[in-house]
C-alpha cells in the first residue's frame, strides 16, 4: 500500500500547446506501479485553461475546488466542487477557470497515457 | 460529455460482510459507458469501516473529508483530506473512520469490477 499527501507531490507546468496557467501533479501513476489508470491533479490559475483538444482515451474528472467551465461540442457546462465529468475518447474538450481562485480537479486516464513511448509525447501531460 | 453533481448520485448501503456504516455512490461507471475504470465515492459514518479483505484488482483512493485509518499487512496509516492511497491487487486492506464526522473518499477500480457477471457478486460493491 502506498499512502502520500497531495501536498507532497511535485507540481509541473503543463506546457502542451493551448494550455495556459495549468499545473499537474501525478498523484498515482507509473512510478507507483499503477497497472490500469493514473490519477492526476490539475490546478488551473484564474484566467487559465487546458488545451481545447481531443485524443483516443477518456477522462474521468472530479472537481475539488473553484469554479470552471467544461467545453464540449454539445456546449459548455458550469463546474463546481463535487461535480464529476466523463469525457469519452475522441471528444473535443477543454476546462477553463471562470473564477477568482484556483480551479482544482483530479483527472484520471488509462495508465498507458503516462508510460514512456506508449503515446506521442504531446499527449503525456494533458488532461484536458 | 457527461456532467453530474455528486449530490445528485444515489447512495446505497454497502452490505458486503465486514462492512459497517458505509454508503457508496457510483459517480462514473458502467451506466456511463466508462470503458476502463469506475469512480465510486464512499462515505463511512463515525465508528464505521469497510471490510478487511483482498481481491484481484487494485484501488486508487483520494480522501475528501474526515479522518481515517488505512490497514495493510505492513501496518496502519492515518488518512486526512488530500491523501491518496494505492492498494495493489491481492493486498489485504481496510478503511476505518477514526473521527467524529463522516469519512469520505473516492475509490477507483477497473471497470470490470462493476460489469454484470464479470466478478463474483460479493465483489461488486466493495471498495475497500
Write structural notes for this entry.
The structure is a homodimer of 128-residue chains. Chain A is mainly beta. The first copy, chain A, is 0% helix and 49% strand. Chain A has a 6-stranded antiparallel β-sheet, with no helix packed on it. A 3-stranded antiparallel β-sheet of chain A has the order 7-6-9, with no helix packed on it. In chain A, strand 2 (11-13) and strand 3 form a beta hairpin. Chain A is globular. The N and C termini of chain A lie far apart (29 Å). Strand 8 (83-87) of chain A pairs antiparallel with strand 1 (2-5) of chain B, so a sheet runs across the interface.
Quick structural overview:
The structure is a homodimer of 128-residue chains. The first copy, chain A, has 128 residues and is mainly beta.
Explain the layout of strands and helices.
Two copies of one chain form a homodimer.
Chain A: E1 2-5, E2 11-13, E3 20-28, E4 37-49, E5 59-65, E6 68-72, E7 75-79, E8 83-87, E9 94-97, E10 103-110
Antiparallel strand pairs in A: 2-3, 3-4, 4-10, 5-8, 5-10, 6-7, 6-9
Give the topology string of chain A: H per helix, E per strand.
EEEEEEEEEE
Binned, the helix content of chain A reads under 10%
Main interface: chain pair and counts:
A-B, 39 and 39 residues
Strand order of the largest sheet of chain A: 2-3-4-10-5-8
Distance between the termini of chain A: 29 Å
Chain-averaged pLDDT of chain A: 93
Q: In terms of quaternary structure, what is this?
A: homodimer
Number of helices of chain A: 0
Please state the structural category of chain A: mainly beta
Strand content of chain A: over 45%
Q: What is the strand tally of chain A? A: 10
Radius of gyration of chain A: 14 Å
What is the 3D form of chain A? globular
Q: In terms of per-residue confidence, which ranges of chain A show pLDDT below 50 for 5 or more consecutive residues?
A: 118-125
User: What profile does the largest beta sheet of chain A have?
Assistant: 6 strands, antiparallel
Amino acid at each position: 500500500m502506498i499512502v502520500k499527501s497531495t501536498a507532497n507531490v511535485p507540481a509541473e507546468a503543463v506546457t502542451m500547446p493551448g494550455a495556459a496557467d495549468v499545473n499537474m501533479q501525478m498523484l498515482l501513476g507509473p512510478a507507483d506501479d499503477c497497472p490500469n489508470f493514473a490519477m492526476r491533479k490539475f490546478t488551473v490559475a484564474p484566467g487559465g485553461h487546458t488545451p481545447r483538444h481531443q485524443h483516443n482515451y477518456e477522462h474521468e474528472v472530479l472537481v475539488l475546488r473553484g469554479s470552471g467551465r467544461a467545453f464540449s461540442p454539445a456546449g459548455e457546462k458550469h463546474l463546481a466542487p463535487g461535480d464529476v465529468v466523463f469525457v469519452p475518447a475522441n471528444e473535443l474538450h477543454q476546462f477553463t477557470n471562470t473564477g477568482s481562485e484556483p480551479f482544482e480537479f483530479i483527472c484520471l486516464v488509462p495508465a498507458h497515457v503516462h508510460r514512456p513511448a506508449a503515446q506521442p509525447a504531446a499527449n503525456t501531460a494533458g488532461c484536458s
